[in-house]
Design brief:
Elements: E1 2-8, H1 13-23, E2 29-35, E3 42-46, E4 49-53, E5 56-65, H2 67-81, E6 89-95
Antiparallel strand pairs: 1-5, 1-6, 2-5, 3-4
Helix pairs in contact: 1-2
Length: 112
C-alpha cells in the first residue's frame, strides 16, 4: 500500500478529484495549507501599499491506495494539476506498513 500526498494549487482540486475518481480512487483527505517552494512567495499591491505574501495558499491531498493503483493515481494527479507555471506543486509517495478500518477491523488492502 502507498500513501500519496500531493500539494497542488487550490483551483485545480476539483479536476484532481475527478481524475482520481476515474482511475478508481475511493476516498481522500483534503487540507487547506499554506507554503512556498522555489517561487518564495510574491509581492502584491493593496490600497497603494506593496506587501510580500510569503506563504501561498495550497491544497494538500492525501490518499491511500493499493500498490497496483499507485502509479495510475500519480499520473492522474500530475495530468489534472499541471498548469505549466511555477507553483504547480509536488507529489510524495510513501509506503504504508498497515491499514486498519476502525469500524470493521478490516486490515490491509480490504481496509482501503
Amino acid at each position: 500500500m502507498k500513501l500519496i500526498t500531493a500539494i497542488i494549487k487550490p483551483f485545480r482540486l476539483d479536476d484532481v478529484r475527478n481524475a482520481l475518481g476515474e482511475v478508481g480512487v475511493n476516498g481522500m483527505t483534503v487540507t487547506e495549507v499554506k507554503g512556498f517552494g522555489r517561487q518564495r512567495g510574491h509581492t502584491e499591491l493593496y490600497r497603494g501599499a506593496e506587501y510580500v505574501v510569503d506563504f501561498l495558499p495550497k491544497s494538500k491531498i492525501e490518499i491511500a491506495v493499493s500498490d497496483e493503483l499507485a502509479e495510475r493515481a500519480v499520473e492522474a494527479i500530475v495530468s489534472a494539476a499541471r498548469t505549466g507555471k511555477v507553483g504547480d506543486g509536488k507529489i510524495f509517495v510513501s509506503s504504508i506498513e498497515q491499514t486498519i478500518r476502525i469500524r470493521t477491523g478490516d486490515m490491509g488492502d480490504s481496509a482501503l
